[in-house]
Design a protein that fits this description.
Length: 516
């Protein structure tokens, strides 16, 4: 059970590793991108939940990698063709060394071996309507040929389904292989002729996997898309199998986040991937706290916004909501108070209200969430959860609720609970553990423990699990709710995911996990 009691500040963790440098893109060449996401179609029944959200997520990811990005949402035919022309002109102006990146999310079909990207204003009664009123992918290639730049990436998350009426169904249910690949890598969200899933977690599986991995330093573009394909296949049980055509040339690899890397960059990239994969606002906000200067900050902020605001398909072509409701921009709008000057938030240009300002606006000194889950702001807890998530297989019983677990840390060669641990366990038993095991859909608990490599008391690990379980039982959690304790000993050491934590201290633990 997730705790959502006034969690406005659940992600304001201590700024650990604030001075740690972010991932360097290593981009010396100009980078130009066009991102199009079509969600809201004029024809009833054609609306898609996620393309506009996918486009926003990719825009943020690409900006973190040094791309100058134009984004067009819910575009009609004229707007799409104008965007193609502008993209080509920008690439030509950037020069022959420029790298181009085109991303499209929305409906797409093939007819007679040609690919058509469906604009929001298309009304199709027959196949000829598609030929006449939907931009062909070939048009984009013409602009790229004219630009004459070194390398281009075409990403088509465009095979969601075939929305066209039965009279037009001789158009294919997916996209066709283009055969136009020299100097270009073309990535399809699924195999030619197949249909991709729109996604059930706020983004398509393909876009989400790409956003999770594209900022990883030291991997070539071909390797990146192979890893994206593998991740999508695993998450969809092979219902969706991405496809890549690569015609990149030259002796050097192209790496979106730079081909040269170091331990700090790899650590940040691993923490970023784990955070984005978690679908947890708390973990994502922890990443921002640990890496406030990350190049991927806007990407993480975009993902947080999407998780917190799932209804985002009602957008106009300009990206504004098609509604007359007044916009609420901050907590101060809600409580009707004038907001003081707020702190800048990362690279987005937005202003962030601090915890103190929020408390002032609400007229309180302490948030309920600070009382019922006081450990959630502790950077050791955050690092521990991220370390466990990095080594936990998605789909494992503990994976879904890993972010709601509690760590208890111990002194060296000790299994004694200190006052802070007892206080956290009491709150955990009251507000998390008992509701979890006694609710309408009762779950279970598991206590796992570990020791640091240098500890001499081999029995300390087992004792730590037993001590924590016994303490929770004394606090009213039923003994029958616990599965068998697990002891990792010194053999499965937790690795700091980039938070600057002492790994010896991190590995003297017992963790209470929530299971379904």
């Amino acid at each position: 059970m997730r705790i959502w009691i006034l969690t406005a500040l659940a992600g304001l963790f201590a700024l650990a590793a604030a001075a740690m440098p972010g991932v360097q893109t290593g981009a010396s060449e100009p980078r130009v991108a066009l991102v199009i996401g079509n969600s809201t179609y004029d024809t009833p029944g054609w609306t898609l939940e996620n393309p506009a959200r996918d486009a926003r997520l990719m825009k943020a990811a690409l900006e973190g990698l040094g791309f100058e990005v134009d984004i067009v949402l819910n575009a009609d035919e004229d707007e799409m063709e104008e965007a193609f022309a502008s993209f080509g002109a920008r690439l030509k102006e950037a020069g022959p060394d420029a790298t181009g990146f085109f991303f499209y999310a929305g409906h797409g079909v093939q007819s007679e071996g040609l690919n058509y990207l469906i604009p929001t204003d298309l009304v199709a009664y027959n196949e000829a309507d598609v030929w006449a009123n939907a931009p062909r992918l070939e048009l984009l290639f013409r602009y790229l040929d004219n630009a004459g730049n070194a390398a281009n990436f075409i990403i088509l998350d465009a095979c969601r389904n075939n929305p066209l009426p039965s009279a037009v169904r001789n158009t294919g249910g997916g996209l066709a292989a283009t055969g136009r690949v020299r100097g270009t890598l073309i990535a399809y969200s699924t195999a030619p002729g197949a249909v991709a899933e729109d996604g059930s977690v706020g983004n398509s599986e393909f876009t989400l996997a790409l956003s999770e991995l594209i900022a990883t330093p030291g991997i070539a573009a071909e390797t990146l898309f192979r890893r994206v394909a593998t991740r999508v296949e695993q998450r969809t049980n092979y219902r969706q199998q991405p496809w890549v055509e690569s015609g990149l040339r030259g002796n050097a690899d192209f790496c979106f986040a730079g081909c040269d890397t170091d331990d700090k960059a790899r650590s940040e990239a691993a923490a970023l991937t784990a955070s984005l994969s978690s679908n947890s606002v708390g973990v994502l906000e922890s990443f921002l706290a640990a890496f406030p200067n990350s190049h991927s900050r806007s990407l993480v902020e975009a993902r947080i916004d999407q998780l917190q605001n799932p209804e985002t398909t009602g957008l106009s072509a300009s990206g504004t909501r098609d509604t007359a409701e007044p916009e609420v921009t901050s907590l101060y709008d809600i409580v009707g108070k004038e907001a003081p000057d707020a702190e800048p938030s990362g690279t987005t240009g937005k202003r962030r209200v601090t915890e103190g300002q929020m408390k002032e606006a609400l007229g309180v000194s302490t948030f309920i969430s600070d009382l019922v889950t006081p450990w959630r702001k502790d950077v050791m807890q955050t690092a521990g959860r991220a370390a466990f998530m990095a080594r936990t297989v998605e789909g494992a019983p503990e994976y879904e609720l890993l972010d709601d677990g509690l760590f208890v840390f111990f002194a060296q060669d000790s299994a004694t609970l200190d006052a802070a641990a007892r206080s956290n366990l009491k709150a955990f038993a009251t507000y998390v553990a008992r509701p979890h095991v006694e609710g309408e859909r009762p779950g279970y608990l598991r206590v796992v423990s570990g020791c640091m490599a240098g500890e001499s008391m081999t029995g300390a690990c087992r004792q730590r699990s037993a001590v924590v379980e016994n303490q929770l039982v004394e606090m009213g959690v039923p003994r029958a709710a616990f599965e068998a304790q697990m002891n990792y000993g010194k053999h499965r050491q937790l690795e700091d995911p980039g938070f600057g934590i002492d790994e010896d201290a991190l590995n003297r633990y017992a963790m209470v996990q929530l299971l379904r």
